[in-house]
Amino acid sequence: MGSRVRPKPKTIEQSVSCGELTCVPWRAMLEETQAWDELAQSAAEPNPFYESWYLLPSLASFDDGNAISILRFTRHGKLCALMPVVRESKYEGWPLAHIGNWLHPNIFFGTPLVARGMETQFWRALLGWADDQTKLSLFLHLHEFALSGPVFESLESVLASDGRIWGVVEDKERALLASDLAGEDYLAQSLSSRKRKDLNRRARRLSEIGKVSFQWETGTDRIAPWIDEFLALEAAGWKGEAASALACDTATKTLFRNSLTGAAERQRLARLSLRVNDKPIAMLSTFLTPPGAFGFKTAFDEDYARFSPGLLLEREFLDALKRFDIDWCDSCAAPDHSVMNRMWQERRPLGRLSISIGGPLRRATFGQVLRREMANADLGANA
């Protein structure tokens, strides 16, 4: 691609004593990927879906109308926090305009990237900026947000000190792997003796039809053929028939290829496959974000379903924490995912938050809306 002069983007700024928050068009961040990657390495809580190698391909695939902006928080010229934002005209079918963190169906975590020690300054700057956006928005809404950890705890503290009305309008848990146990010992706690014997029996039966191997891969070696194998494997199953496989849509196919390549180039991707005579029958990808990791995509060959290749692959994955010297792995699975909930015993709390912005009248109006929503959900608002 040839070089060209970029017009200076229109920005909206919010200054605080310890830094400056700027709202910029997302394409302005194309020139800041090095600083962005450095921020990801120093983040108080990792989020691969908001790192440069995942978020930029996401925006390129899904933001044709330039509706998404980036909130970037800097201190002394250094990038210290980042979150994609979007303005929405409706909320849960109601005509309630609001500002929210941006996600798409393949972004499974919405906590912003914030440098360690800068959490409070970031939230004060973001809320101050949001207070100035009330001509178009009634409240701030955060999706897929961790309901524990330093970023959430600092937000709680700032909201309390500001006296803002806010509430968790949805909370849920999803499977998390966080244990010092070896894989077999962990499995003994997760599955009954009968289920473990059955899984061993299926593994023996599989070995009778060919050479069985588990293959771990990192880095960029063989990344392109691995991606091709995965896309073909997923498309050959029920997701292909339902037209929901990644390969069924150019945007998701391109995102998968570009994001995995970008992660591999930064040593932030682990790939595991179960093979019979070198043919992949189950595959999974995981984003490595020390001290943790995030499961991304899995697929298996339905012709081998009687051998439970997906379960065999997940059993092998149980030793990933020790292999990659990480403390935990977020499954990114649906809260009701039967396999992951059975295999992984720990849980990560997530939710959606709604937060008041603007002056007293607007906050009071939002408070009425929030209380009605939370009463319907049998939750409680904070005021």
Oligomerization state: single chain
> How far from one another are the termini?
52 Å
| Count of helical regions | 13
What is the helix content?
25-40%
Structural class: alpha+beta
Cα-based radius of gyration, to the nearest Å:
22 Å
Classified in CATH, the superfamily of the largest domain is Gcn5-related N-acetyltransferase (GNAT)
CATH architecture of the largest domain, please? 3-Layer(aba) Sandwich
The level-1 CATH class of the largest domain? Alpha Beta
User: Overall mean pLDDT score?
Assistant: 93
Number of strands: 14
Please tell me the total number of domains. 2
Q: Provide the succession of SSEs.
A: EEHHEEEEHEHEHHEHHHEEEHHEHEH
Indicate the low-confidence ranges by residue numbers. Answer: 1-12
Major beta-sheet overview: 14 strands, mixed
CATH topology of the largest domain: Aminopeptidase
Overall outline = globular
Beta fraction of the residues? 25-35%
Protein name: Acetyltransferase (GNAT) family protein
Keywords: Transferase
GO molecular function: transferase activity
Pfam family, one: Acetyltransf_6
Summarize this structure as a short list of keywords or feature phrases.
383 residues; 2 domains; alpha+beta; 14-stranded mixed sheet; Aminopeptidase; disordered N terminus
